[in-house]
Inverse folding.
């Protein structure tokens, strides 16, 4: 079972970026997919989560209205479209997954993790 995150890089303030999380090794129907981010010395911070079905989505207040979570069933991948980026969005972003239907917002509730991808927003 593997989650593979990609799409990070550098962007200027106000720019956009799309992160991808390719899921493989099992069926992900009935799971929750999530994105977290982390800066050195800080705890892993919740960004967004969505049921695999797409029926329910939850965003952190700091990204709501700017970030959009989506799932491509043909590609078996989750995406995070990030718009109107600000320097405070700079972090290593991680995708995560767990079974169930509750959109948990704490990292300790997730047990499948991809490697991080660095997003840097500069002014």
């Amino acid at each position: 079972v593997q989650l593979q995150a990609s799409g990070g890089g550098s962007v200027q303030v106000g720019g956009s970026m799309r992160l991808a999380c390719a899921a493989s090794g099992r069926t992900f129907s009935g799971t929750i997919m999530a994105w977290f981010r982390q800066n050195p010395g800080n705890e892993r911070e919740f960004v967004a989560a969505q049921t695999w079905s797409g029926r329910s989505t939850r965003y952190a207040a700091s990204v709501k209205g700017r970030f959009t979570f989506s799932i491509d069933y043909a590609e078996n991948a989750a995406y995070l479209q990030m718009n109107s980026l600000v320097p405070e969005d700079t972090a290593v972003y991680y995708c995560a997954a767990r079974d169930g239907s509750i959109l948990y917002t704490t990292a300790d509730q997730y047990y499948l993790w991809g490697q991080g991808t660095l997003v840097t927003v500069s002014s």
Notes: The chain has no helices and eleven strands. The chain has a mean pLDDT of 96. The radius of gyration is 13 Å. The longest strand covers residues 91-99.
